[in-house]
Design a protein that fits this description.
about 200 residues, mainly beta, OB fold (Dihydrolipoamide Acetyltransferase, E2P), 5-stranded mixed barrel
């Protein structure tokens, strides 16, 4: 891996036929469908006499682009906003436009820490294979929340001992800490930060 440019805020590398930028600043985001579009970024590099220069680059996002946050969770393009910081992997084939454009392979967005909400309710169902836990009315999907369970989700029994997801059962009362953002789906979906069993 060779360091092509570097600066106080961001660094651009080339690793074989893949380029990578770290700590780039998001200048603009465009998406017609929350999954495709582009992210326009700026990154710094040093010039002569300790001067710092800034380049703009447009990263084109398609359905094959991996979009995740710093916790390795999938996100939509509309979650990336102007002023955020991202790491990105992209093609070294740039257009001659201003700013130059290239296709993004992977973007990691550093999202601000969400506000934490707390819900105490009964488990409606569990999809252990896909890592989903449904809470609310088991007979009405519109009255449920689907929590996504990752390896960062802390799951505890009544005595605060860590347990696997498959120990939990429908009908049990649990306390869930989760983020203040949800998808617009039915049921709405959001990552669970922690789950604690209240009753067996």
């Amino acid at each position: 891996m060779s360091d092509l440019t570097g600066g106080a805020n961001s660094t651009l590398f080339q690793d074989g036929n893949v380029m990578q930028v770290q700590n780039a600043l998001v200048e603009e985001v465009y998406t017609p469908d929350s999954r495709t579009g582009y992210v326009r970024i700026s990154y710094s590099f040093p010039g002569e006499r300790e001067m710092i220069f800034t380049n703009l680059l447009q990263l084109n996002v398609n359905w094959n682009t991996i979009l995740i946050n710093q916790y390795n969770e999938s996100i939509s393009l509309c979650r990336i906003l102007k002023g955020m910081t991202i790491n990105a992997w992209f093609s070294p084939d740039f257009t001659n436009s201003t700013p130059p454009q290239t296709n993004a392979y992977r973007i990691v967005a550093f999202l601000p820490a969400p506000n934490v909400r707390v819900l105490v309710d009964r488990i409606a169902s569990i999809d252990d294979q896909n890592g989903f836990l449904y809470v609310g009315n088991p007979n009405n999907m519109a009255d449920q929340i689907r929590f996504t369970i990752s390896n960062l989700t802390q799951i505890l029994d009544q005595n605060n001992n860590p347990i696997p997801l498959n120990i939990l059962q429908p009908g049990q009362m649990i306390r869930v800490e989760y983020g203040d953002f949800e998808t617009a789906s039915i049921p709405p979906q959001t990552p669970a930060f922690s789950i604690k069993m209240i009753t067996y």
